[in-house]
Amino acid sequence: xxxxxxxxxxxxxxxxxxxxxxxxxxxxxxxxxxxxxxxxxxxxxxxxxxxxxxxxxxxxxxxxxxxxxxxxxxxxxxxxxxxxxxxxxxxxxxxxxxxxxxxxxxxxxxxxxxxxxxxxxxxxxxxxxxxxxxxxxxxxxxxxxxxxxxxxxxxxxxxxxxxxxxxxxxxxxxxxxxxxxxxxxxxxxxxxxxxxxxxxxxxxxxxxxxxxxxxxxxxxxxxxxxxxxxxxxxxxxxxxxxxxxxxxxxxxxxxxxxxxxxxxxxxxxxxxxxxxxxxxxxxxxxxxxxxxxxxxxxxxxxxxxxxxxxxxxxxxxxxxxxxxxxxxxxxxxxxxxxxxxxxxxxxxxxxxxxxxxxxxxxxxxxxxxxxxxxxxxxxxxxxxxxxxxxxxxxxxxxxxxxxxxxxxxxxxxxxxxxxxxxxxxxxxxxxxxxxxxxxxxxxxxxxxxxxxxxxxxxxxxxxxxxxxxxxxxxxxxxxxxxxxxxxxxxxxxxxxxxxxxxxxxxxxxxxxxxxxx
Amino acid sequence: xxxxxxxxxxxxxxxxxxxxxxxxxxxxxxxxxxxxxxxxxxxxxxxxxxxxxxxxxxxxxxxxxxxxxxxxxxxxxxxxxxxxxxxxxxxxxxxxxxxxxxxxxxxxxxxxxxxxxxxxxxxxxxxxxxxxxxxxxxxxxxxxxxxxxxxxxxxxxxxxxxxxxxxxxxxxxxxxxxxxxxxxxxxxxxxxxxxxxxxxxxxxxxxxxxxxxxxxxxxxxxxxxxxxxxxxxxxxxxxxxxxxxxxxxxxxxxxxxxxxxxxxxxxxxxxxxxxxxxxxxxxxxxxxxxxxxxxxxxxxxxxxxxxxxxxxxxxxxxx
Lengths: 517, 319
Prior knowledge:
The complex is a heterodimer. By secondary structure, chain A is of the alpha/beta class.
């Protein structure tokens, strides 16, 4: 690759008078960031060296993506500062970061689908001649970058007809076209096939060899060990350590990602009786995003569903609930067949707390009362007329059981995250389910509300409800579940119970790594 | 300082939104009472009610569509077709048959609208706009572009113009339908599902609501109501024209939105719609009584509509 001998990064960084910390491309000092009640980052300090590949690893929710996004100007920090080549900077937008040479290639591809490869690459900075787009200049830019990187791309292909891997390459070229010399890659290989992953690895090395700095946010430890020079492990929004990758192994990284955080207490586990009936039994189920899944839940049992983001957990429970059709296998609820629609699921005694309470759970502008009674409304009405007294009583009782709000006439939007979540539990309880599916029920919820929800889940299980719990917090799964089912890449890959239910074993199954088991 | 001012301004916005159209309605009503002698006369007020009957009937059902997250732009076209159909059938067969035909044709178009929107997933705005062309076209073909008259069947006029306690049957029908629609929306499970569907369709679906069924039902009711509106107005003047509902859709939507029903769905109520329609009517009536240039009337209406939508957007800014 001939072009590599002349890195584009040779441009001077504007405004830099003196580099007082040679070798440090970006210094991060005491970064803090909160989303509502959730502390995503806390006092994070990391030095990112110029021309190196720096990996950020951690469990789901450890803060690695948030850190990557702050570096690229997508989020703004609450505390702390970024020092770029010795100069403090504040990015108010991704564009501001890009102007200083920092580009983000995100998990979700952000291209204009109907434009061509070359058009996307120059988008926003088109070569112009007399205020018309200079097609020849566009082509020249494209060819220069392709020659430099060796990507196999055609200038005139429409990007929406390209596979994800190629779209990522287009995004990388777009970053390079804007003279980016620090590229943040956020989970770049999550959606790629094995061969495409190899290709991306070559690209990362190429970028580093041409003098650019790469920040690699990744779930895949093997990839990190293979590609990165330095690795920072994050846990609960804090830096555990930053080390040369040469000093780390998969096992040492997993060990660093584990650990207890403060102030969690889980209610005692009470195992269901030996003869408890099976409330959910699925065999070889396939659905959009799910390759094959087999699992069962008994009455009174809490089954944890663990996996990385994108492992197919939410897709699976949506298929169980009838929200999306399953394409194979069998689903049995109690004695009956699986529901074809959410309405049938409700009738079969299934309730679901969906993954996103704002998009899938709440009517935000409607009062709490209407939100709670929604599913059980037929039970509170006669000849289609709602008995408002009965409704008020039922809603109040159900909210009391969840330790939720008493302000039943406020719009749901006015509640805190914790109270919104409790509202959804109150709705589920009103239908007296025998199976409760809870998809990340404590996301974005403060510690106090979390405890209430843990108590509630345990109490429900104690009363004979089967619970299928998805959580990205390992502690939560370990603290609440009687049994853990692990998914990876759209399939159920393992089941752990009793003594074998350890953090290490679950993480190893999630990451697909044997060395840590 | 900001926290306190923000709560104060939010509270003010909330209070204004709650009182909504009632305040401007009272203001205009008072101004007209003071500035025009003829305004407060029984004759003038009942005239307004009679003239607004069709509009308010169509608007009540249109409110359901809007709350469920849809929009119906075919109201005017249905009105025109129903007017021509009911008049033709009434003169050929009988008055009851004419009424059934008028309402029935509206119901049928409404069902088609609902099916297109749900089953074929066409955006409601586009689906009903397209249907409005289809329906107007059919009405023009059926009437061959002529004015349909039934002056030789004066009994059809009794349907809308019979006076009971000094008020026309058209106005009584309007009151009855408004009350029924208000009960339907606020007291029944169906009404709740309408709000839920417009408030968050996916949440409603996951909550066990047959979202598509609810949407089809609102379009069907809107079609039937527009059909009834056309039938009433045809009965009142014993003549009808395919194009007579040309501007009705916009009058109806203006009334509903000025009343405070959100174009984004999930919010609104029948009493607001009734007040909104009457408010628009008062302004027209006022311009008339005070002898003001009707061109300013249009400008005024446009500004009021923008204000109504602006207030809605402002109150949502924190979402």
